[in-house]
Structures are given as structure tokens and as C-alpha cells.
Amino acid sequence: AGYSPPGWTPGAKGAATAGMTLGEAVKSKYFYLLWAMLFINVTAGMAIISQASPMAQELMSAGMSAAEKAAKAGLILGIFSIFNGIGRLFWASLSDKIGRRTVFTILFASQAVVFYLLATTTNLTMFIIYCCYIYLCLGGGFATMPAYAADIYGTKFVGRIYGWKLTAWSAAGVVGPMLFAQIRQSSGNYQQALFITAVALAVALILPVLAAPPQEQQPDKAA
Length: 223
What we know:
The protein is mostly helical. It has helices spanning 22-27, 29-58, 66-98, 100-120, 124-153, 158-165, 167-187, 191-203, 206-210, 214-217.
């Protein structure tokens, strides 16, 4: 105990643990910006999760029985789940290289395009490809947000802060499927709901712009 290797100097005390408390975080704009980012990304993904099976079955051959369609849809949903897991690894790793804000900008912009394309396709293969990408982004947003929160709040209290931020996930899990189903019921098709989701994702592009970590907003005075 107390031994220090030659040439080793301890880092600044608290450098890895300093940060906002939960009370300070809730009073900052970042709490609500990041909450909204997580909410919108999850809402889009959960909306597809809730309706992926019936949407896929509508695109299947009319000659298939209901049981065959259900079995095939189950297999397709299994594939989607794999991409959800891959997305958590891919986007989180990419965010270490290009930044969290850049990742969320890509997530929102690309999904806006994909949801628009999804609304226009009648091809089952393209439907599967588009949904795989949406699942990739769903997992990616969820996995990248903890690091984004740590960048802004510091690491000391980030667990507690992020726990509260996960209310966005819970809310999206209710709101996304419910709104999607209601729009589907009122319009008689999925296209309108998909177009609305695309627009919401496009509008959400402003959120990463506003949620720049403090260190990115202030130039280094020591430079």
C-alpha cells in the first residue's frame, strides 16, 4: 500500500468522478434535451416493434395461410432482435470515435429517410431491410445515451441521473405503440403513421445541436 511506480503521477483528484448532482442535472437544459432525444428514438423503434408482425403479414403472399404468415413473421421478428443487439455494440463503439452528438444526428436523419421509404414500400424484402436498420438504431440510441449523459454530467452521479432519464424509455414504450395503433386505426393504413414518424425524427435533428456538452461550447482557456 502506498507504493507508486517510478515516473507515475496521480491524476487530478475527482477528475473521473466530478459532475452534477441529480438536482443540478434536473435544473439544466441537458436533462430535458437528452430525455427528449431518448424518448423520440425509442418511440420510433417501439412503434415498429408493436406493429412489425401485422405489417409484415400484410406484405406476404395472399396464398399463404394465416398460420404460415404468423410463423414467418415470428422468424422475421427474431432477425430484427439480432439487429437490436448489434446496434448497441456498433453505435456505442462508433460514438467513441465520432462523438455522441454526431451519432444521434445520424440516427435521427437516417431513420427519417428510412421511415419515409418504409411507408412507400410494398416489397417484403425491403420491409425487412428497413426494419432491421430501425432496430439497429433503437439499440444504438439506448446504448449511446449513458455515455452521452456521462459526457455532460460527469461520472460521479450519472447512474442516478440516468435512472431518471430512463423514464423516457418507459414513456416511449407506452406512447409509441399507442399512437401508432390509433393512427393506423383512424387512417386504415400504416403509411400515415410512418410519414408522421419520419417528420418527427427530422424535427428531432435540432436536439443534438442544442445538446452540445459544456466543454464543446467553451474554448479551452489554457490553449
